[in-house]
């Protein structure tokens, strides 16, 4: 019986606490909340700072597809993709993953500053014959979040 009374009392108390709703707009209009004064200059500075911190870098490449042409089975070939940051905030290559173990990307370890560029080496090992096309997926802090680079080769025996 005591447990039932305790549970009922707790439920009633919980319902009363949850039903209390405050209108923030009314509090501000009534003046019960401390007013915050913002000048136009302060607002512009705050907006600029927020944009600088929340903007996205813009990534550009010298090429997104590189064709090695004809390679012999067992050969290794490498290419350096040039990555440029055409945005206003640092570009970070978080991760670079290849679609196959025969392709190894080496991502830049440092952020790429606005207006700067960096090289990313990709090594392709021709392990099987035929037309090969391998993707390298970059995870970035761009608005899209990822970019894809491709290396191709015609591997002969």
TrEMBL record:
Keyword match rRNA processing: no
PANTHER family: LIPOPROTEIN-RELATED, SIGNAL PEPTIDE PROTEIN
Annotated organism of origin: Paenimyroides viscosum
Signal peptide range in chain numbering: 1-17
Record's keyword annotation contains Iron-sulfur: no
Entry keywords, A to Z: Signal
Domain of life: Bacteria
Matches recorded under InterPro entries: DUF1573, Ig-like_fold
Entries under Pfam families matching the protein: DUF1573
Protein name: DUF1573 domain-containing protein
């Amino acid at each position: 019986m005591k447990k039932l009374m305790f549970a009922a009392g707790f439920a009633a108390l919980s319902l009363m606490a949850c039903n209390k709703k405050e209108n923030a707009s009314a509090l501000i209009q009534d003046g019960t909340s401390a007013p915050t004064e913002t000048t136009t200059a302060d607002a512009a500075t705050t907006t600029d700072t927020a944009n600088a911190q929340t903007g996205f870098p813009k990534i550009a490449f010298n090429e997104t597809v590189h064709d090695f042409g004809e390679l012999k089975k067992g050969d290794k070939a490498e290419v350096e993709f040039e990555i440029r940051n055409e945005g206003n905030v640092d570009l970070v290559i978080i991760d670079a993953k290849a679609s196959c173990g025969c392709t190894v990307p080496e991502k830049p370890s440092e952020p790429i500053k606005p207006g700067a560029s960096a090289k990313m080496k990709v090594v392709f090992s021709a392990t099987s014959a035929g037309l090969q096309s391998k993707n390298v997926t970059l995870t970035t802090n761009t608005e899209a979040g990822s970019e894809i680079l491709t290396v191709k080769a015609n591997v002969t025996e």
